[in-house]
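Attaching the record inline, Q. Sequence:
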Amino acid sequence: MRLLNKLVLLAVGLITFLSCAQNKKEETKTFNLDQYVDSIASEVKHYPKEPMYYLRINQLNCIYEVLVNDRLIDKNYSLKQYATATEINSCILKSGPQKVTYRLYPIGDLIKEEYGEGENVTTLLANTEITIEVIRVADINTSKSIVDDEKLILKHESKNDKNTDKFVGSGLPYYEYTFTFEAQVPYEIEGWTNAIDLRKLDQEKLELAVVNYYKEIQQLYKANDAASIMTMEYDMFVRLAITEYRDRQYIKEMVAEIYDPIFILNKDYQPIIDYKMQYFADGKIVRLWHPSIFEKPDLDPRLNRKSAFYFLYTNKDNRKRVRFQGITLSIPKDKHKKGEFNFEFAR
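Structure, as predicted:
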Protein backbone atom coordinates (compact mmCIF):
# COMPACT_ATOMS: atom_id res chain seq x y z
CA MET A 1 0.00 0.00 0.00
CA ARG A 2 2.88 2.38 0.78
CA LEU A 3 4.37 1.77 -2.65
CA LEU A 4 0.99 2.18 -4.32
CA ASN A 5 0.37 5.48 -2.54
CA LYS A 6 3.79 6.72 -3.50
CA LEU A 7 3.21 5.76 -7.12
CA VAL A 8 -0.11 7.60 -7.14
CA LEU A 9 1.55 10.71 -5.75
CA LEU A 10 4.31 10.40 -8.30
CA ALA A 11 1.87 10.08 -11.16
CA VAL A 12 -0.15 13.06 -9.96
CA GLY A 13 3.00 15.12 -9.65
CA LEU A 14 4.22 14.21 -13.12
CA ILE A 15 1.11 13.88 -15.24
CA THR A 16 -1.94 16.02 -15.97
CA PHE A 17 -4.63 13.56 -16.90
CA LEU A 18 -6.61 15.28 -19.65
CA SER A 19 -8.56 13.58 -22.37
CA CYS A 20 -7.94 15.40 -25.63
CA ALA A 21 -5.10 14.60 -28.02
CA GLN A 22 -3.36 17.95 -27.57
CA ASN A 23 -3.19 17.51 -23.83
CA LYS A 24 -1.90 13.99 -24.36
CA LYS A 25 1.19 15.58 -25.90
CA GLU A 26 1.50 17.85 -22.87
CA GLU A 27 1.34 14.76 -20.66
CA THR A 28 4.52 13.44 -22.23
CA LYS A 29 6.24 16.83 -21.92
CA THR A 30 5.51 17.11 -18.18
CA PHE A 31 7.05 13.73 -17.34
CA ASN A 32 10.06 14.43 -15.14
CA LEU A 33 12.64 11.66 -15.52
CA ASP A 34 14.84 12.88 -12.64
CA GLN A 35 11.91 12.82 -10.21
CA TYR A 36 10.99 9.35 -11.44
CA VAL A 37 14.52 8.07 -10.83
CA ASP A 38 14.66 9.77 -7.41
CA SER A 39 11.41 8.10 -6.40
CA ILE A 40 12.75 4.64 -7.26
CA ALA A 41 16.04 5.34 -5.50
CA SER A 42 14.18 6.38 -2.34
CA GLU A 43 12.67 2.88 -2.09
CA VAL A 44 16.10 1.24 -1.81
CA LYS A 45 17.36 0.41 1.66
CA HIS A 46 20.97 -0.41 2.42
CA TYR A 47 22.29 -2.92 4.93
CA PRO A 48 25.55 -3.72 6.77
CA LYS A 49 26.02 -6.59 4.31
CA GLU A 50 24.36 -6.84 0.92
CA PRO A 51 24.66 -10.40 -0.42
CA MET A 52 24.29 -11.18 -4.12
CA TYR A 53 23.49 -14.52 -5.72
CA TYR A 54 24.55 -15.69 -9.17
CA LEU A 55 24.28 -18.65 -11.51
CA ARG A 56 27.20 -19.81 -13.63
CA ILE A 57 25.91 -21.98 -16.47
CA ASN A 58 27.77 -24.23 -18.87
CA GLN A 59 26.10 -26.40 -21.49
CA LEU A 60 27.04 -28.88 -24.20
CA ASN A 61 24.99 -29.87 -27.27
CA CYS A 62 21.85 -28.00 -26.29
CA ILE A 63 20.31 -24.57 -25.97
CA TYR A 64 18.61 -23.56 -22.74
CA GLU A 65 16.38 -21.35 -20.65
CA VAL A 66 16.94 -21.01 -16.90
CA LEU A 67 14.30 -19.75 -14.47
CA VAL A 68 14.60 -18.78 -10.81
CA ASN A 69 11.34 -19.04 -8.89
CA ASP A 70 9.70 -19.57 -12.28
CA ARG A 71 10.91 -16.27 -13.73
CA LEU A 72 13.15 -16.36 -16.77
CA ILE A 73 16.62 -15.20 -15.71
CA ASP A 74 18.90 -16.45 -18.48
CA LYS A 75 18.70 -17.99 -21.93
CA ASN A 76 21.17 -19.09 -24.58
CA TYR A 77 19.94 -20.06 -28.03
CA SER A 78 23.43 -20.42 -29.49
CA LEU A 79 26.38 -22.82 -29.25
CA LYS A 80 28.41 -20.24 -27.34
CA GLN A 81 29.37 -20.81 -23.73
CA TYR A 82 29.51 -17.88 -21.33
CA ALA A 83 31.88 -17.73 -18.38
CA THR A 84 30.19 -14.66 -16.86
CA ALA A 85 27.88 -15.44 -13.96
CA THR A 86 24.26 -14.18 -14.09
CA GLU A 87 22.84 -12.15 -11.19
CA ILE A 88 19.62 -13.65 -9.81
CA ASN A 89 18.72 -11.43 -6.84
CA SER A 90 15.94 -9.86 -8.92
CA CYS A 91 14.08 -13.20 -8.68
CA ILE A 92 14.69 -13.66 -4.95
CA LEU A 93 11.96 -11.89 -2.99
CA LYS A 94 12.88 -13.12 0.49
CA SER A 95 15.09 -15.53 2.41
CA GLY A 96 14.41 -19.25 2.24
CA PRO A 97 14.29 -21.96 -0.43
CA GLN A 98 14.63 -20.78 -4.03
CA LYS A 99 13.67 -22.83 -7.07
CA VAL A 100 15.89 -23.16 -10.17
CA THR A 101 14.43 -24.69 -13.33
CA TYR A 102 16.25 -25.32 -16.57
CA ARG A 103 14.73 -26.18 -19.93
CA LEU A 104 16.89 -27.82 -22.54
CA TYR A 105 16.17 -27.84 -26.28
CA PRO A 106 17.97 -29.47 -29.25
CA ILE A 107 20.49 -27.45 -31.25
CA GLY A 108 18.61 -27.57 -34.54
CA ASP A 109 20.62 -26.09 -37.43
CA LEU A 110 23.17 -24.31 -35.22
CA ILE A 111 26.08 -26.58 -36.21
CA LYS A 112 25.28 -26.07 -39.90
CA GLU A 113 25.03 -22.31 -39.41
CA GLU A 114 28.33 -22.25 -37.52
CA TYR A 115 30.41 -24.58 -39.69
CA GLY A 116 28.55 -24.72 -42.99
CA GLU A 117 27.69 -28.39 -42.70
CA GLY A 118 25.82 -30.77 -40.43
CA GLU A 119 22.31 -32.06 -39.89
CA ASN A 120 19.22 -30.49 -38.37
CA VAL A 121 19.17 -31.90 -34.82
CA THR A 122 15.58 -32.08 -33.58
CA THR A 123 16.05 -34.10 -30.38
CA LEU A 124 18.47 -33.89 -27.47
CA LEU A 125 21.68 -35.82 -27.99
CA ALA A 126 23.15 -38.59 -25.88
CA ASN A 127 26.07 -36.36 -24.82
CA THR A 128 23.91 -33.38 -23.82
CA GLU A 129 25.11 -31.74 -20.60
CA ILE A 130 24.40 -28.74 -18.43
CA THR A 131 26.12 -27.62 -15.25
CA ILE A 132 24.74 -24.87 -13.01
CA GLU A 133 26.69 -23.42 -10.09
CA VAL A 134 24.85 -21.33 -7.50
CA ILE A 135 27.24 -18.69 -6.18
CA ARG A 136 26.98 -16.26 -3.27
CA VAL A 137 28.96 -13.08 -2.67
CA ALA A 138 28.59 -12.14 0.99
CA ASP A 139 28.71 -8.37 0.47
CA ILE A 140 28.68 -6.80 -2.97
CA ASN A 141 29.97 -3.48 -1.55
CA THR A 142 33.26 -4.92 -0.27
CA SER A 143 33.73 -7.46 -3.04
CA LYS A 144 36.68 -6.74 -5.32
CA SER A 145 35.42 -9.25 -7.88
CA ILE A 146 32.93 -12.09 -8.03
CA VAL A 147 35.66 -14.61 -8.79
CA ASP A 148 37.74 -13.61 -5.74
CA ASP A 149 34.88 -13.44 -3.23
CA GLU A 150 32.39 -16.01 -4.46
CA LYS A 151 31.27 -18.96 -2.38
CA LEU A 152 29.87 -22.02 -4.10
CA ILE A 153 26.48 -22.78 -2.57
CA LEU A 154 25.50 -25.65 -4.82
CA LYS A 155 26.66 -27.32 -8.02
CA HIS A 156 24.09 -29.14 -10.15
CA GLU A 157 25.03 -31.42 -13.04
CA SER A 158 22.54 -32.96 -15.44
CA LYS A 159 22.16 -36.69 -15.03
CA ASN A 160 22.92 -39.62 -17.29
CA ASP A 161 20.97 -42.86 -17.41
CA LYS A 162 22.67 -45.45 -15.18
CA ASN A 163 22.20 -48.25 -17.70
CA THR A 164 23.20 -46.49 -20.93
CA ASP A 165 25.40 -43.68 -19.61
CA LYS A 166 23.50 -41.37 -21.96
CA PHE A 167 21.83 -38.11 -20.98
CA VAL A 168 18.48 -38.93 -19.35
CA GLY A 169 16.67 -36.70 -21.83
CA SER A 170 18.37 -38.19 -24.87
CA GLY A 171 15.98 -38.48 -27.82
CA LEU A 172 13.49 -36.00 -26.39
CA PRO A 173 12.56 -32.69 -28.08
CA TYR A 174 12.56 -30.96 -24.69
CA TYR A 175 13.78 -31.66 -21.16
CA GLU A 176 13.06 -29.83 -17.91
CA TYR A 177 14.45 -30.22 -14.40
CA THR A 178 14.08 -28.32 -11.12
CA PHE A 179 16.27 -28.12 -8.02
CA THR A 180 16.35 -25.82 -5.00
CA PHE A 181 18.86 -23.93 -2.88
CA GLU A 182 18.69 -21.79 0.27
CA ALA A 183 19.25 -18.03 0.10
CA GLN A 184 19.60 -15.44 2.86
CA VAL A 185 18.84 -11.83 1.92
CA PRO A 186 18.21 -8.78 4.17
CA TYR A 187 15.07 -7.61 2.35
CA GLU A 188 11.57 -9.00 1.81
CA ILE A 189 9.28 -7.68 -0.91
CA GLU A 190 5.94 -8.70 -2.36
CA GLY A 191 6.87 -8.68 -6.03
CA TRP A 192 4.59 -10.79 -8.17
CA THR A 193 3.26 -12.92 -5.30
CA ASN A 194 0.11 -10.82 -4.89
CA ALA A 195 -1.33 -11.86 -8.25
CA ILE A 196 -3.89 -14.41 -9.36
CA ASP A 197 -3.13 -17.65 -11.19
CA LEU A 198 -4.03 -16.72 -14.77
CA ARG A 199 -4.09 -20.36 -15.82
CA LYS A 200 -7.38 -20.72 -13.94
CA LEU A 201 -9.17 -18.16 -16.10
CA ASP A 202 -11.00 -18.80 -19.37
CA GLN A 203 -8.03 -19.16 -21.71
CA GLU A 204 -9.73 -17.94 -24.87
CA LYS A 205 -10.98 -14.79 -23.17
CA LEU A 206 -7.63 -14.27 -21.48
CA GLU A 207 -5.74 -14.56 -24.75
CA LEU A 208 -8.02 -12.02 -26.44
CA ALA A 209 -7.63 -9.63 -23.50
CA VAL A 210 -3.82 -9.95 -23.51
CA VAL A 211 -3.64 -9.27 -27.26
CA ASN A 212 -5.87 -6.22 -26.90
CA TYR A 213 -3.76 -4.93 -24.02
CA TYR A 214 -0.61 -5.35 -26.11
CA LYS A 215 -2.29 -3.29 -28.82
CA GLU A 216 -3.12 -0.56 -26.31
CA ILE A 217 0.54 -0.45 -25.26
CA GLN A 218 1.50 -0.19 -28.92
CA GLN A 219 -0.59 2.95 -29.17
CA LEU A 220 1.19 4.43 -26.14
CA TYR A 221 4.55 3.78 -27.78
CA LYS A 222 3.38 5.22 -31.10
CA ALA A 223 2.27 8.36 -29.25
CA ASN A 224 5.62 8.60 -27.42
CA ASP A 225 3.59 8.59 -24.20
CA ALA A 226 6.47 8.26 -21.77
CA ALA A 227 4.39 9.20 -18.74
CA SER A 228 1.93 6.33 -19.11
CA ILE A 229 4.53 3.73 -20.09
CA MET A 230 6.97 4.60 -17.33
CA THR A 231 4.22 4.61 -14.71
CA MET A 232 3.35 1.05 -15.80
CA GLU A 233 7.02 0.03 -15.49
CA TYR A 234 7.52 1.62 -12.06
CA ASP A 235 6.97 -1.43 -9.84
CA MET A 236 9.33 -3.53 -11.94
CA PHE A 237 12.10 -0.96 -11.58
CA VAL A 238 11.53 -0.79 -7.82
CA ARG A 239 11.85 -4.58 -7.51
CA LEU A 240 15.11 -4.59 -9.45
CA ALA A 241 16.54 -1.67 -7.49
CA ILE A 242 15.65 -3.10 -4.05
CA THR A 243 16.81 -6.66 -4.68
CA GLU A 244 20.10 -5.54 -6.23
CA TYR A 245 20.77 -2.64 -3.76
CA ARG A 246 21.18 -0.21 -6.67
CA ASP A 247 22.35 3.40 -6.43
CA ARG A 248 20.83 6.33 -8.27
CA GLN A 249 23.28 6.28 -11.18
CA TYR A 250 22.61 2.61 -11.94
CA ILE A 251 18.85 3.16 -11.64
CA LYS A 252 19.08 6.05 -14.10
CA GLU A 253 20.88 3.85 -16.62
CA MET A 254 18.42 1.00 -16.05
CA VAL A 255 15.42 3.27 -16.58
CA ALA A 256 16.96 4.64 -19.80
CA GLU A 257 16.80 1.18 -21.37
CA ILE A 258 13.00 1.47 -21.39
CA TYR A 259 12.67 5.26 -21.59
CA ASP A 260 14.91 5.97 -24.60
CA PRO A 261 13.22 3.58 -27.08
CA ILE A 262 9.89 5.32 -26.50
CA PHE A 263 11.16 8.21 -28.58
CA ILE A 264 12.46 6.26 -31.57
CA LEU A 265 10.95 7.91 -34.63
CA ASN A 266 8.65 6.21 -37.12
CA LYS A 267 8.19 3.01 -35.18
CA ASP A 268 6.56 0.44 -37.45
CA TYR A 269 4.79 -2.02 -35.16
CA GLN A 270 4.27 -5.47 -36.58
CA PRO A 271 1.02 -7.44 -36.20
CA ILE A 272 0.72 -9.56 -33.06
CA ILE A 273 0.49 -12.96 -34.77
CA ASP A 274 2.15 -16.38 -34.72
CA TYR A 275 2.52 -16.13 -30.94
CA LYS A 276 1.89 -18.39 -28.00
CA MET A 277 1.00 -17.49 -24.44
CA GLN A 278 3.71 -18.31 -21.92
CA TYR A 279 3.25 -18.37 -18.16
CA PHE A 280 5.79 -17.62 -15.46
CA ALA A 281 5.77 -17.29 -11.68
CA ASP A 282 3.50 -20.32 -11.31
CA GLY A 283 0.88 -18.87 -13.62
CA LYS A 284 0.87 -15.35 -12.15
CA ILE A 285 2.61 -13.76 -15.12
CA VAL A 286 1.80 -14.08 -18.82
CA ARG A 287 3.47 -12.89 -22.00
CA LEU A 288 3.06 -13.37 -25.74
CA TRP A 289 6.12 -14.93 -27.30
CA HIS A 290 6.93 -16.37 -30.68
CA PRO A 291 7.43 -20.13 -30.41
CA SER A 292 10.57 -21.95 -31.48
CA ILE A 293 11.02 -23.04 -35.07
CA PHE A 294 10.66 -26.63 -33.81
CA GLU A 295 7.14 -25.86 -32.65
CA LYS A 296 6.30 -23.84 -35.78
CA PRO A 297 8.61 -24.83 -38.66
CA ASP A 298 7.23 -22.17 -41.04
CA LEU A 299 8.00 -19.34 -38.57
CA ASP A 300 10.42 -16.67 -39.74
CA PRO A 301 13.70 -17.78 -38.04
CA ARG A 302 14.36 -14.17 -37.00
CA LEU A 303 11.34 -14.40 -34.71
CA ASN A 304 12.48 -17.63 -33.08
CA ARG A 305 11.71 -17.35 -29.34
CA LYS A 306 11.33 -13.56 -29.52
CA SER A 307 8.64 -11.29 -28.08
CA ALA A 308 5.44 -10.87 -30.09
CA PHE A 309 5.64 -7.15 -29.23
CA TYR A 310 8.15 -5.59 -31.62
CA PHE A 311 8.67 -2.84 -34.14
CA LEU A 312 10.88 -1.98 -37.10
CA TYR A 313 12.65 1.35 -37.44
CA THR A 314 15.40 3.06 -39.42
CA ASN A 315 18.50 4.05 -37.47
CA LYS A 316 20.67 7.13 -38.00
CA ASP A 317 22.71 5.25 -40.61
CA ASN A 318 19.50 4.68 -42.58
CA ARG A 319 19.55 0.95 -41.82
CA LYS A 320 16.51 -1.10 -40.92
CA ARG A 321 16.54 -2.35 -37.37
CA VAL A 322 14.17 -4.29 -35.12
CA ARG A 323 13.45 -3.95 -31.41
CA PHE A 324 11.69 -6.63 -29.41
CA GLN A 325 10.08 -5.30 -26.24
CA GLY A 326 9.32 -7.82 -23.51
CA ILE A 327 5.86 -7.16 -22.04
CA THR A 328 4.83 -9.32 -19.07
CA LEU A 329 1.44 -8.93 -17.42
CA SER A 330 -0.29 -9.95 -14.21
CA ILE A 331 -3.56 -9.23 -12.40
CA PRO A 332 -3.20 -8.27 -8.71
CA LYS A 333 -5.56 -10.10 -6.38
CA ASP A 334 -7.01 -6.84 -5.06
CA LYS A 335 -7.87 -5.71 -8.61
CA HIS A 336 -9.33 -8.97 -9.86
CA LYS A 337 -13.03 -8.95 -10.64
CA LYS A 338 -14.82 -11.85 -12.26
CA GLY A 339 -15.22 -11.32 -15.98
CA GLU A 340 -12.68 -8.47 -16.09
CA PHE A 341 -9.01 -8.40 -16.99
CA ASN A 342 -7.41 -5.63 -14.97
CA PHE A 343 -3.83 -6.13 -16.12
CA GLU A 344 -0.74 -4.49 -14.75
CA PHE A 345 2.84 -4.80 -15.92
CA ALA A 346 4.29 -7.66 -13.87
CA ARG A 347 6.38 -6.59 -10.89
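The mean pLDDT is 90. The longest helix spans residues 203-222.

More tomorrow.
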